[in-house]
């Protein structure tokens, strides 16, 4: 058993070293050298500290992430409480819809905001027509709104689990011992939910900080870290890889710090999520119930509205950049008239990446969950590093690492797949180790005891038992890879452009209709598989003992 | 022929010595039980034999073949797990066939051997069923069939009955014992249930803090415990501290609990502190005939059906449990005086710690 775990861990560590740590090391290296001569310097960092533009960039990114975190908590916690404790009509549907923004591409939501409230937006023009001026949504306000509306599920999901984890008897005991309802909330409910709030909040913070697509669409000329890194590295006029490296290192430092705080905090406080009897629904006055329902449904609908708007706009005709109210499939015709290639690329790359991610992630997740050792601890830690690294930075590292030398990958499809696999690996590892935790270890021991080797036991017994969960993970990786923008836009070559790239360039240029069609395709591509597995997973769960 | 030799086996987890320098010899065809409270190291020892816990030092041999450096899947042991570990994604027959397939047995042989194994555990015809259609007792039988069918060198049982209800537990232990004897297999059985251990074993090793306290037949373990721990762990004995007096050539008098007990043999030098073990069934309500006896008072009476347990208070307040037959007409109220008779040969003395 130990040998199997050691082999898996070593292979995984080698892969991660080559495709994650080595590229990151090169980015770090670039940040401490003078561009061109290669001499050692801290000058790049000094230049950043001295530059008002870059300090503004860092400040804007941190401020947007912090505001988004606060707002996501402000709407996520009440929503989680309502889902857990109030009899909201359509609760099951609400729960499904509330998780959707996590997998729908956030820059599509940002683009919808532009379509509706931008310079030539539908709402802007309409309001201007009747004489009401409307403030600009570009820059901070729009970005914070989009982050909040697309990332709040990160708060809802763990906090909901936390609220449900409080066994009914806990609250009853608190009441029985003479505590008031609010005392019970303060002494029992909140302490249990607090780590979940922090965990979810920090995830929102990290995701918002790293996000490239949303500021790329909405920042206009205001500086944001993720966009500036991209421009400094890939920009035609003002390229400065050393400065890009230095900014990357600072961004990684911020996200890594947030993740370490989260890990440290969660490591000390674990709450059981196995309440024997879920806490009772609160008996509210009809007025409060209606208010709770309106608030819950309101949050979810508003967060999904941008996606609906994009779908709608995509079937309207554009005259130049101006939207008309004529129905028509012209946008889709434009999208596909160029070539089917980008769509095909999206589907192919996502499929290859999803399968590869699960093939690599499942054994790692298994080893991390089952075989506690120093090696697997190291693997667990390094496997989570991609969380702290934005797609843009990883892509830059990959380009620097594999542009020359023994292994040249730039310009091909493989480098895109590698970027997707590395970025989605933490998710694959987390989800498969979560499944393994639910499997009784004695099942594997029984197999080994009966004479089947550990590696064969993993392949023939453990994997089939994990199957339903792995399928879910596979589909989620597929979805997020299909809508990946930040790494793709750095790594793609014209032969391997994807739908996200087409949409990005259409937004940058004047192809408003084209962008809407591409965005709509991305929504469909991500939403359809999700609906399919929702059914499949439910069916499978029923058959698992 | 499989004899098992365990020599100077040690395993520590962090600073705890889970298995501490244990040596055991187990004869072929023997059902050998590892008995002890939780945390005594019995499960660790079993898992070391199965190959799931690494040996730190010492050795394990089956016959003259040393096996402690073989990987678990090559040790040829058949283990019955506490929670059965029946593969939920396989049918009953596939579960039983699992080890045969791993041994590359031909399909035809597998079929006949699986059928025979299921028949042996009284599950003929259950092969095509899915595990979740079976009851706990049936799953237990599948687990046993799966371990037996590979004809392992050694059978290992890890508290196999602890998840069953009381009645099924007694039935299953008889089945396990009969199968093991009929097949002549060497078996190691882990349990914390002393009654189960006494009922099923050829020999028992009582473990405590990773060390062996005593290895003996069930009768000798019960009647002649070598340590106070063994005496206390097997049967709910009464431990009474006392001080030895003079030896009269046949018995030693012991002052204890405000009265005096007569113990067979010269148990200690006069004045030495001792611990007396008085089994509840070794004490009777005196019928007036001669013999050693002590005065006590009834504190509480528990009626248990076939027997009743009397809680008697000795002159200094020490409580004693006394087993009396349930059918005997006895309806004294708490506070009533009792005269307890006993056989000096049945009292065991240990040096006080």
Provide a descriptive summary of the structure in words.
The complex is a heterodimer of chains A (545) and B (353). Chain A is an all-alpha fold and 545 residues long. Helix content of chain A is 77%, strand content 2%. In chain A, helix 3 runs antiparallel to helix 10 and helix 16 packs across helix 23. The longest helix of chain A is centred in the N-terminal third of the chain and has 34 residues. The C terminus of chain A is likely disordered. By secondary structure, chain B is of the alpha+beta class. In chain B, a hairpin with a 5-residue loop joins strand 17 and strand 18. Chain B is elongated.
> Averaged pLDDT of chain B, please?
91
Structural class of chain A: mainly alpha
| Contiguous runs where pLDDT drops below 50 for at least 5 residues of chain B | none
Low-confidence segments of chain A, given as residue ranges, are: 537-545
Count of runs of 4 or more consecutive helical residues of chain A: 24
The radius of gyration of chain B is: 25 Å
List keywords for this structure.
heterodimer, A: 545 residues, mainly alpha, two-stranded antiparallel sheet, B: 353 residues, alpha+beta, six-stranded mixed sheet, five-stranded antiparallel sheet
Write the layout of secondary structure elements.
The complex is a heterodimer of chains A (545) and B (353).
Chain A: H1 2-31, H2 43-50, H3 52-85, H4 91-103, H5 106-117, H6 122-129, H7 140-151, H8 153-165, H9 168-176, H10 181-210, H11 213-218, H12 225-234, H13 241-268, H14 286-314, E1 316-319, E2 322-327, H15 330-338, H16 341-370, H17 374-388, H18 391-402, H19 414-438, H20 441-449, H21 454-482, H22 488-491, H23 499-508, H24 512-543
Antiparallel strand pairs in A: 1-2
Helix pairs in contact in A: 1-13, 1-16, 1-17, 1-18, 2-13, 3-7, 3-8, 3-10, 3-14, 4-8, 4-14, 5-7, 5-14, 5-24, 8-10, 9-10, 10-13, 12-13, 14-24, 15-24, 16-17, 16-19, 16-21, 16-23, 17-19, 19-21, 20-21, 21-24, 23-24
Chain B: E1 4-13, E2 16-26, E3 31-35, H1 42-50, E4 57-62, E5 65-66, E6 77-80, H2 92-102, H3 107-120, H4 136-148, E7 154-158, H5 166-183, E8 186-191, H6 194-200, E9 203-208, E10 211-216, H7 218-223, H8 228-233, E11 238-247, E12 251-256, E13 259-264, E14 273-278, E15 283-285, E16 293-303, E17 307-313, E18 319-325, E19 337-342, E20 348-351
Parallel strand pairs in B: 3-8, 3-9, 6-7, 7-8
Antiparallel strand pairs in B: 1-2, 1-4, 4-5, 9-10, 11-12, 11-14, 12-13, 14-20, 15-19, 16-17, 16-19, 17-18
């Amino acid at each position: 058993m130990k040998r199997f775990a050691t082999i898996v861990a070593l292979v995984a560590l080698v892969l991660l070293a080559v495709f994650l740590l080595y590229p990151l090391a090169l980015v770090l290296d670039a940040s401490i050298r003078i561009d061109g001569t290669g001499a050692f310097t801290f000058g790049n960092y000094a230049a950043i500290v001295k530059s008002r533009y870059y300090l503004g960039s860092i400040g804007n990114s941190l401020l947007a992430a912090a505001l988004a975190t606060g707002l996501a908590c402000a709407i996520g916690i009440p929503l989680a409480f309502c889902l857990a404790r109030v009899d909201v009509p359509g609760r099951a549907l609400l729960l499904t819809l509330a998780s959707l923004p996590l997998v729908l591409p956030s820059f599509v939501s940002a683009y919808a905001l532009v379509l509706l409230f931008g310079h030539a937006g539908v709402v802007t023009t309409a309001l201007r027509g009747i004489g009401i001026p409307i403030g600009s949504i570009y820059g901070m306000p729009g970005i914070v709104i989009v982050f909040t509306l697309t990332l709040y599920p990160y708060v809802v999901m763990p906090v909901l689990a936390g609220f449900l984890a409080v066994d009914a008897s806990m609250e009853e005991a608190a009441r029985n011992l003479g505590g008031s309802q609010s005392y019970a909330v303060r002494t029992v409910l909140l302490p249990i939910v607090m780590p979940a709030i922090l965990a979810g909040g920090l995830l929102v913070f990290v995701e918002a900080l790293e996000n490239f697509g949303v500021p790329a669409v909405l920042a206009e000329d205001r500086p944001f870290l993720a966009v500036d890194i991209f421009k400094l590295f890939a920009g035609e006029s003002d390229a400065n890889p050393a400065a890009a490296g230095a900014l990357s290192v600072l961004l990684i430092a911020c996200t890594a710090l947030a993740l370490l705080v989260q890990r440290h905090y969660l490591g000390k406080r674990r709450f059981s999520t196995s309440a024997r009897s879920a806490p009772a629904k609160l008996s509210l006055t009809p007025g409060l119930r209606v208010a709770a329902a309106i608030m819950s449904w309101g949050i979810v609908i508003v967060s999904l509205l941008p996606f609906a708007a994009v779908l709608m706009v995509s079937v309207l005709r554009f005259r130049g950049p101006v939207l008309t109210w004529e129905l028509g499939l012209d946008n889709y015709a434009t999208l596909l008239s160029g070539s089917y290639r980008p769509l095909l690329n999206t589907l192919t790359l996502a499929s290859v990446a999803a399968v590869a991610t699960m093939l690599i992630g499942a054994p790692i997740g298994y080893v991390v969950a089952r075989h506690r050792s120093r090696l697997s601890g190291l693997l667990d830690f390094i496997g989570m590093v991609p969380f702290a690294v934005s797609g843009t930075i990883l892509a830059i590292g990959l380009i620097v690492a594999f542009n020359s030398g023994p292994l040249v990958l730039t310009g091909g499809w493989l480098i895109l797949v590698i970027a997707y696999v590395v970025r989605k690996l933490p998710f694959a590892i987390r989800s498969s180790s979560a499944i393994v935790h639910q499997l009784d270890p004695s099942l594997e021991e029984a197999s080994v005891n009966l004479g089947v080797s550990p590696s064969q036991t993993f392949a023939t017994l453990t994997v089939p038992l994990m199957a339903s969960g792995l399928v879910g993970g596979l589909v989620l990786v597929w979805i997020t890879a299909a809508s990946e923008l930040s790494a793709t836009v750095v790594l793609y070559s014209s032969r391997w452009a994807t739908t996200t790239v087409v949409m990005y360039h259409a937004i940058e240029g004047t192809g408003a209709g084209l962008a809407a069609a591409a965005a709509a395709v991305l929504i469909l591509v991500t939403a359809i598989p999700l609906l399919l597995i929702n059914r499949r997973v439910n069916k499978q769960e029923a058959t698992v003992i | 022929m499989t004899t098992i030799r365990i020599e100077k086996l040690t395993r520590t987890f962090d600073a705890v010595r889970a298995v501490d320098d244990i040596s055991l010899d187990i004869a072929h065809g023997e059902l050998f039980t590892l008995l002890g409270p939780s945390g005594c190291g019995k499960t660790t020892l079993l898992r070391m034999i199965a190959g799931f816990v690494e040996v730190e030092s010492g050795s394990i041999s089956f016959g003259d073949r040393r096996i402690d450096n073989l990987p678990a899947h090559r040790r040829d042991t058949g283990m019955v797990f506490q929670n059965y570990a029946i593969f939920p994604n396989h049918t009953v027959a596939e579960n039983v066939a699992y080890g045969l397939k791993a041994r590359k047995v031909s399909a035809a042989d597998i079929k006949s051997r699986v059928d025979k194994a299921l028949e042996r555990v009284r599950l003929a015809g259950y092969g095509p069923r899915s595990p979740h259609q079976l009851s706990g007792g049936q799953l237990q039988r599948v687990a046993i069939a799966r371990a037996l069918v590979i004809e392992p060198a050694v059978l290992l049982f890890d508290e196999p009955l602890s998840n069953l209800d009381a009645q099924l537990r007694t039935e299953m232990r008889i089945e396990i014992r009969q199968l093991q004897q009929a097949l002549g297999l060497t078996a190691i059985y882990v349990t914390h249930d002393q009654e189960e251990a006494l009922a099923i074993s050829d020999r028992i090793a009582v473990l405590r803090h990773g060390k062996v306290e005593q290895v003996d037949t069930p009768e000798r373990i019960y009647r002649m415990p070598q340590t106070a721990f063994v005496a206390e762990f097997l049967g709910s004995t009464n431990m009474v501290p006392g001080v030895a007096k003079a030896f009269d050539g046949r018995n030693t008098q012991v002052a204890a609990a405000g009265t005096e007990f007569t113990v067979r043999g010269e148990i200690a030098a006069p004045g030495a502190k001792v611990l007396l073990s008085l089994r509840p069934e070794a004490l009777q309500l005196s019928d007036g005939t001669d013999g050693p006896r002590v005065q006590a008072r009834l504190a509480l009476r528990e009626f248990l059906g076939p027997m009743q347990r009397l809680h008697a208070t000795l002159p200094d307040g020490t409580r004693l449990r006394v087993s009396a037959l349930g059918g005997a007409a006895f309806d004294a109220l708490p506070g009533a005086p009792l005269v307890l008779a006993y056989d000096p040969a049945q009292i065991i003395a240990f040096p006080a710690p």
